[in-house]
Amino acid sequence: IVFSMAVFKRCYKQWLWFMVLFMSFSVIYVDAVWPMPQMISSSMARYTLNPREFIFQYSSGSSAQPGCSLLDSAFERYYPLIFTDYRADKLSVCSGQAALRAETVWGALRGLESFSQLVYQDDFGEYFVNETEIEDFPRFQFRGILLDTSRHYLPLHAILKTLDAMSYNKFNVFHWHIVDDPSFPYQSSTFPDLSSKGAFHPLTHVYTQIDVKRVIAHARLRGIRVLAEFDSPGHTQSWGKGQPGLLTPCYKGTVPSGTFGPVNPANSSSYQFMTRLFKEVTSVFPDSYVHLGGDEVDFTCWKSNPDVRGFMLKMGFGTDYTKLESYYMEKLGLNKTAIVWQDVFDYHEKIPVDTVLHIWKGSPGQIQQELSSITLAGYRVILAAPWYINHIDYGQDWEKYYTIQPLNFTGTEQQKTLVIGGEVCMWGEYVDATNLSPRLWPRASAAGERLWSDEKMTSSVIDAFPRLVDFRCRLLRYRVMLI
Amino acid sequence: IVFSMAVFKRCYKQWLWFMVLFMSFSVIYVDAVWPMPQMISSSMARYTLNPREFIFQYSSGSSAQPGCSLLDSAFERYYPLIFTDYRADKLSVCSGQAALRAETVWGALRGLESFSQLVYQDDFGEYFVNETEIEDFPRFQFRGILLDTSRHYLPLHAILKTLDAMSYNKFNVFHWHIVDDPSFPYQSSTFPDLSSKGAFHPLTHVYTQIDVKRVIAHARLRGIRVLAEFDSPGHTQSWGKGQPGLLTPCYKGTVPSGTFGPVNPANSSSYQFMTRLFKEVTSVFPDSYVHLGGDEVDFTCWKSNPDVRGFMLKMGFGTDYTKLESYYMEKLGLNKTAIVWQDVFDYHEKIPVDTVLHIWKGSPGQIQQELSSITLAGYRVILAAPWYINHIDYGQDWEKYYTIQPLNFTGTEQQKTLVIGGEVCMWGEYVDATNLSPRLWPRASAAGERLWSDEKMTSSVIDAFPRLVDFRCRLLRYRVMLI
């Protein structure tokens, strides 16, 4: 068995090899890999794996060697996953080897996952792997899952378990929608009041700096980037509790109504606050991207406020409040690449060319139109709208997530290359740790294959079904679905 | 605080008392009980409970005394539920007592549950109970939950945990839909092949006699009856695997097609088999009721089979296959009271007067009509149709379970008394241990209150909502929802 794996990401320009020792044996069963590799061919030749003799080994020519903590720890994780119920009672017969060749350590992680899925047990508990050759790479470079920790707090273990499951599905971006209107669980070192006053509970329902570091480290070891979102100027009700003066006071006639709207774009103190907050955030979350939100800004409150109206006049925005939102978003400028929700494109004129637009709404036709428009304007785009997986129906609905065709829109080949990937969104209105996992898996796996695999090779729902059933059992064994 | 509790069930004609010691203190907060008691009045007078001094005690006049294993074990269960995070670090201040008076041990269990729900903690971890008087009894005597262990196997711990949650909701019947078409997990001592050939796995996906005993014992300690269903003559595909000759061979023209239909009603061996099986079943499941199923019999296969057609001729049934099903159901006669699905009423003429009909289908109008017809014919009825809780939608749907009015149909007062209760059904097409709990709770709690409480006192969804939210938190603390 030889894995040879080429991966697009270019974090490390090097070649890695490692090997597994196993034993030749008889012939029967071929298992599948989810998501489907770009090329897989296997024979009925079956080799027995002896858990007692099985080792992961760096080959002598590999640029990674023992001490590469990322792969060392991956080997430690995968051994018990591959030999789930091994009780040290098997004997070796003979031995062979498998090779995995990857351009980057991240690719090596994906290959390791594929290898683990090739191993299966017979009724007597013996482990087998068929002679197999795989060449693989992802179709899209951005394969994300969004968790919303504001509408319901998710304990750390629920996030870590989701990261585990993501890695088995070859997702590579954890989009952490960490704060929103209902609560502000991120414990900021610069502005501790944001969570002490804005979280559901100041001690139990927060993410400390240590928690965040743990999530990032856990994700990194599994080849997952952590994309933090601090959505503004809307969706910030909880921010106002710990940062008085940040939000726009809404007016009823000539007097303040006592309620608050989006961040006040007329105060220079708002920008000073945001700059300091994002200085911290971009340092705590080391990814080169940051998500700035920018969706669903309700202009009613801004319109009611005399200071905001005065600011509009002064800036020459007339009565076009989209110009005000545009102004606000521009002032957030950071030294990172921004991802924003599609609203920012729909309303605004000036957006930095490297900004990534995130499509979250519309009918299938509107989504196609949005894909065309954004890519025609030269911006990169992430598609989330078809994968709002928090929505549920009775029965099997994975098919609708599976049959999405992200590149099915009017545009040039060049435009199509601007679709960098897609994202499964698990909004938290009705989701907490009690129902997250069964709602997410294996439904998100359908999107996982769509984002990784060749579309033509995975066009049949009927062919996918038994493979998905099999993969679900694997997720059960890997203990990422609650039992 | 005095609980005085009268319960309809007449298993024991006696009075029980026991007491709790506690400490008088200050005034603030009143917690609610779910489902709503028939009468509850409480004051703002608040007493501190000292976990170190708190004891359950039988009063000297009680007919139950130490050694009553049912209540002794209930005391042991409820102490850690009431004092969830007690770490033996509290001091006593003074003491008082609460009394619970119940006609039966089962009533005492319900009262104990209500008492546990009155206890709450303040921010400093101190336990309180307000001065409260409750008089309570259930509106309906049959308050059931159906679990389907055939379409997906449910491991024992999932069943036991459901029983725990049922007791917190004051449900009192576990309807165990133990076998069906997909699998036969019940390990019969008389016919071991039924599970060794008909279960999903002969060793891991079965319920042994010991498992069944454990379920029954666990349920009994929580005041829950176990109603076993062995559904026939339809829904028996899995039975055929371990009992060749039991099912009707379907014909295509003049030759057997290789597929099988319902139990073969033309063979005397079928009745001999059923008699022997039910002899075992009625002994293993000691409840005085047994569920015989009788739903959704597809006559196509019977019609295709020449032997069945010959039998119809011989019996003078003409072409009316409902007469054949009727004949079959009658021949099952047992020394227990039968519960059957409504189909048996819809199709049949002769049904023993003590049979209970189980309504599972139809539009709201059809359900009302069915309630009228069945009770007019003098039969007792259980309402399940509005509570098919395996069906899910996005968002809050507990309201529709809550606002069901089981007695809202045309009929005399006498007819209304024949509605003995209702049942929440969790069919297993898409349900296994990974999603059972979050799908069941707190949605089934809405039905729980409908079946226990006074309808007028619990008519408002708006009033119920904060109480249900609070009760859900309690279920989380009691660890019956997976976290």
Automatic annotation (TrEMBL), chains A, B:
E.C. number(s) listed in UniProt: 3.2.1.52
InterPro entries: Beta_hexosaminidase_sua/sub (IPR025705), GH (IPR017853), Glyco_hydro_20_cat (IPR015883), Hex-like_dom2 (IPR029018)
GO biological process, one term: glycosaminoglycan metabolic process
The keyword GTP-binding appears for this protein: no
Membrane spanning stretches: 15-34
Catalysed reactions, semicolon-separated: N-acetyl-beta-D-6-sulfogalactosaminyl-(1->4)-alpha-L-iduronyl-(1->3)-N-acetyl-D-6-sulfogalactosamine + H2O = alpha-L-iduronyl-(1->3)-N-acetyl-D-6-sulfogalactosamine + N-acetyl-D-6-sulfogalactosamine; a ganglioside GM2 (d18:1(4E)) + H2O = a ganglioside GM3 (d18:1(4E)) + N-acetyl-beta-D-galactosamine; Hydrolysis of terminal non-reducing N-acetyl-D-hexosamine residues in N-acetyl-beta-D-hexosaminides; a ganglioside GM2 + H2O = a ganglioside GM3 + N-acetyl-beta-D-galactosamine
One Pfam short name: Glyco_hydro_20
Family under the similarity heading: Belongs to the glycosyl hydrolase 20 family.
Role summary: Hydrolyzes the non-reducing end N-acetyl-D-hexosamine and/or sulfated N-acetyl-D-hexosamine of glycoconjugates, such as the oligosaccharide moieties from proteins and neutral glycolipids, or from certain mucopolysaccharides. The isozyme S is as active as the isozyme A on the anionic bis-sulfated glycans, the chondroitin-6-sulfate trisaccharide (C6S-3), and the dermatan sulfate pentasaccharide, and the sulfated glycosphingolipid SM2. The isozyme B does not hydrolyze each of these substrates, however hydrolyzes efficiently neutral oligosaccharide.
Name of the protein in its database record: Beta-hexosaminidase
Organism of this sequence: Oncorhynchus tshawytscha
